[in-house]
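Why do we bother with a discrete structure alphabet at all? Because it lets us treat a fold like text: something you can write down, compare, and reason about line by line. To make this less abstract, here is a complete entry for Amino acid transporter. Read it the way you would read a sentence in a foreign language you are learning: slowly, and without expecting to understand everything at once.
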Amino acid sequence: MTAQQELTAGESASGHLERNTISIPGMVFMVVAAAAPLTAMASNLSLGLAFGVGSGMVGLLLLVGALLAIFTAGYVVLSRRVFNAGAYYAFIGFGLGKATGSGAAFVAAIAYNLAAGGMIAATGYFTDIAVSTYMGIHLPWYLYGAVALAVTAALGYIGVGIAKTVTTVISVAQFAIIIWLGIAIMIQRPDGFSLDVFSPERMFHGNIALSLVFCILSFSGFEATAIYGKKPRRRGGVSRWRPTARCRSSSWYSWDRPGR
């Protein structure tokens, strides 16, 4: 039995995945929502600007985007051969064996759960700040975090169809805010936009390692397309729209980062 056959058999034993439940545009919005561009701008990119290379983050973002484009080329080819919701386990197991794939799955599961815990805490903390500031209501942060966790669990239980709708609305709202912010910056600081952000002096001066980490984290989530390999309504949807999601993310990040 080949590695691909083993993976397929394992998937069948674990349960049935609904097919043809996501349109290709819906998948793009789900992937972009997973990357959370607004959150990345408020956290990863802001920290990179403050403690990394400064305005050179714009150039580094495009550089990292280009490197990920090369990675995406191989990822696309592999996604045409391996269809499995296990994603990390399936891809790594297909190439390096089930043992290595299982190890990668454990690492990914731990990393994602730790990240989810951090996001829940951050959601509760910043929601409390917003509610107490604008509504005068102060509640413990963990209550807001628990609500966010409950909503996420409910969406996961109901199914990917409703989750697609919710993430589409969230993605559109994020794009609207980013566009509004970019226009505001252009009006108030038109001299803030400069091609100097692409110069080597700006891109490779300062804490480059920290900046690269934040740049890569800003794109995290686009790899999730592999999870939905059997859900698109059109064959090849994953391989066709993964580059689209990555390009959109890099474009939005660069749009709202003027030179300094």
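What the structure line is telling us, in plain words: The chain has one domain: 3-11+23-255. DSSP finds eleven helices and no strands in the chain.
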